[in-house]
Amino acid sequence: MKYFLIAGEPSGDAHAAALLQALKLNDPGAEFCFCGGDAMKAATDVEPVIHIREMAFMGFVTVLKNLPAIRRNFRVCKQAIADFQPDAVILIDYPGFNMRMAAYLRKTTLIPIFYFIPPAVWAWKSYRVNQIKRDISKVLSIFPFEKDFFASYNCEVDYVGHPSVDATRNYLASPLPIEEFRQRNSLTNKPVIALLPGSRRQEIESCLPKMIEAARQFPDYQLVVSGVSSIPDSFYQQVMQGAGYPVVVAQTYQLVHAAEVAIVNSGTATLETALLGTPQVVVYSSLQGRLSYLIKELLLKVKYIAMVNIISDKLVAKELYAHFFTVDNLKNELNQLLNNQEYRSRQLECYSKLQTTMGESGAAARAAHSILTFLKK
Fold first, then answer.
1. pTM for this prediction
2. Which of 15, 95, 170, 261 could bridge to 163 as Cys pair (CB 3.0-4.6 Å)?
3. Which part of the chain has CATH 3.40.50.2000?
4. C-alpha–C-alpha distance, residues 4 and 226, integer Å
5. Can you state the angle between helices 163-173 and 363-376, rounded to 10 degrees?
6. Which residues of the chain have pLDDT under 50?
């Protein structure tokens, strides 16, 4: 069969690559076309129609500034689907673009549409669940509580598990020795504070300077930045204003595993950091500051913003959001995680419970099985 996949950012690219490999295993004659990144290319030896470096726009102002590029991407993607004539379209995360594409495809084609890593409509914008019901043939949910939520709206849904469980457990089964990681990246023998500022330029610009300013106040540790391949090193150096801290690219798991503590921009990385067993503090920057915090309190249907806390239904990792994301607040939390053993141990105990909550590995294989079973009907 022929599959067209759309992933718009690095985490989606990685999870889509695992799904591609599972589909190839179960459908040896599979053909692929996609919008995605280097991980999907490596899994298929196919060039992306649009690379994720051209797709990662976040925030109202940034989206407005890049509307011509976004519209062009949408046109290119529509034409690629029309030319490829797939048996299925698989959407991976990236809700702004993918929900719009689903609506277009449902109006103009009969192609089955699957959503792997669906929008978190249970957290906010719950009205979008009606569009999902209308446009998506099957939802492949990744959290235990999602299946009941989507089923309550009569959406076709299978719970397949979270792909980060597979990825982190596969890594921990044969991790890169920490000393080898240091040598590969020319690091010193000092313990590491890992800085994970996100995968988009605007996230990095807003988060990384505060991360550095807080972490550099612990001189017994070395600061190492997690970079992504779609962002050039020159951009990181520009944001760091000549500070010259090492940036390790496409080695997030290796870096987090080697670190004493991680500062993590809110997103899937908070869950992955927990599954890798590294203490963390979660940050999220917003230009609107206190106003954004108030809007979050009014609109979000969940108590927390960090995935590790949402799944655990408790404050496992401190959240420094909007006007709470200050250098002083971040420094104080780092001090607790690095120097208060009881405080640090409590977070690690919560991580152990999270491992049980997330269940068994095999999300990509279950997602592929769900897709193929639906198509064979």
1. 0.87
2. 15
3. 2-161+362-376, 173-358
4. 30
5. 140
6. 60-61, 288-293, 295-299
CATH among 3.40.50.2000, 3.40.50.720, 3.40.710.10, 3.40.1080.10 for 2-161+362-376: 3.40.50.2000
Q: Return the closest-CA partner of residue 207 out of 268, 253, 257, 266.
A: 266
Residue whose entry in the numeric block shows the structure tokens 């991680």: 262
DSSP for 133-187, please give it: HHH-SEEEE-STTHHHHHHHTT--EEE---HHHHHHHHHHHSPPPHHHHHHHTT-
Question: How many other C-beta atoms are found inside a 10 Å radius of the C-beta of residue 354?
Answer: 17
Distance of alpha carbon 110 from alpha carbon 112, whole angstroms: 6
Quick one: pLDDT at residue 253?
97
H helical segments located in the chain = 10-26, 38-44, 60-65, 67-84, 95-108, 128-135, 146-152, 163-173, 178-184, 201-215, 233-240, 252-258, 268-276, 290-299, 307-312, 327-339, 341-358, 363-376
pLDDT for position 122 = 82
Which pLDDT does position 151 carry in this prediction? 95
Note the pLDDT of residue 195. Answer: 98
| pLDDT score for 288 | 46
Rounded to the nearest 5°, which phi and psi values hold at 33?
-140, 145
Q: How far apart are CA 233 and CA 246, in angstroms?
A: 10
CATH tag for 173-358 (out of 3.40.50.2000, 2.20.28.90, 3.40.50.1860, 3.30.479.10): 3.40.50.2000
